[in-house]
Amino acid sequence: MAVLSVPRPLAEALISTVQHGLTLPSDPTRSLVLELAFESWLTRLEDLLARDLQIIRIDEATTQGPYLELDIVYGTLAGTARLFLFSCLDGSVPAAFCQLGEVIRQLPREMRKLSPELPIMVASEIGSLRVSVGLVRQAQTGDALVPDVIPFAGGQIILTADKLWAPAEFAGDRLILRGPFRLQPHPLKSAYMMTRPQTQPSALPSETDIDSIEITLVFECGRWPLPLGTLRTVNEGHVFELRRPVDRPVDIIANGRLIGHGDIVRVGEELAIRLRGGLAVND
């Protein structure tokens, strides 16, 4: 068994790597959260020791006896940690001490900082449609595309920053955030994820095979840069100014590339996107 004693500010800084703004909770939650924060350290040590390691309990440090003292630098924090190890001795120094020292030697000395002003591009998505390449190839001016998923019909929108997304609602010429940006399956794309059996192709794909490939079209009503510091802290209730009127043409995006424009129209009881031209699928 090993006991590691670290300064409380360092423990809180490690916890913030699991979720920004999260403070030191009570047990058993804090043991689990700290285990997640220490995951990269524990994984390396498990490989060296060939043993499974687990944080069992978090307490105020009271352990007495021989210890290994470590200087730790993490970002702007610097402090001293003490490792108390209870195991059979292999000579004068426990083998686990030597192995842990090797792990610590490989750790980066300082966490790289990113400027809070670093611009992150945020896209406002109103819906999506899964279509075949063949249909995209044949699309013409005036055709109406009816989205499979369209939160816009309920006055909502999805804000995306690469793999992060957040829900928002329209309020006149503003958007009101309904939760923080998070890393979860995208609501406009995850519905299309499925596992299919793999078969060994016997020949090169034909044009018919190519036309049967499906892609996801995402309909956007604007993009704008958001400072990294703001992205980290915005939460439910935050208000964004809508940079582009909703009645303006929407952008049609396929795999991150702009391929066309359209207008929001109503077809029967449903909202659709009427194309202003063909879709640019060829170079």
Polypeptide structure, described:
- There is one protein chain.
- Helix content is 20%, strand content 33%.
- It is an alpha+beta fold and 283 residues long.
- It has two domains: 105 residues, no CATH class; 140 residues, Surface presentation of antigens (SPOA) (Roll).
- The strands form two sheets. It has a ten-stranded antiparallel beta sheet with strand order 5-13-12-11-9-4-6-7-8-10. It has a three-stranded antiparallel beta sheet with strand order 1-3-2.
- A hairpin with a 2-residue loop joins strand 7 and strand 8.
- Helix 1 packs across helix 2 and helix 3 crosses helix 4.
- The longest helix has 12 residues.
Strand line-up across the major sheet: 5-13-12-11-9-4-6-7-8-10
Percent helix among the residues? Answer: 10-25%
Q: Sheet bearing the most strands, described?
A: 10 strands, antiparallel
**For the record, what is the CATH homologous superfamily label of the largest domain?**
SpoA-like
Mean pLDDT equals: 75
Number of domains: 2
**What structural class should be given to the helix and strand makeup?**
alpha+beta
**Which stretches of 5+ consecutive residues score pLDDT under 50?**
193-199
CATH architecture of the largest domain: Roll
The run of helices and strands is EHHHEEHEHEEEEHEHEEEE
Query: Tally the helices: what do you get?
Result: 7
CATH class of the largest domain: Mainly Beta
Beta fraction: 25-35%
What gap, in angstroms, lies between the N and C termini? 63 Å
Number of strands: 13
Q: Shape, please? A: elongated
Might you state the CATH topology name of the largest domain?
A: Surface presentation of antigens (SPOA)
Radius of gyration: 27 Å
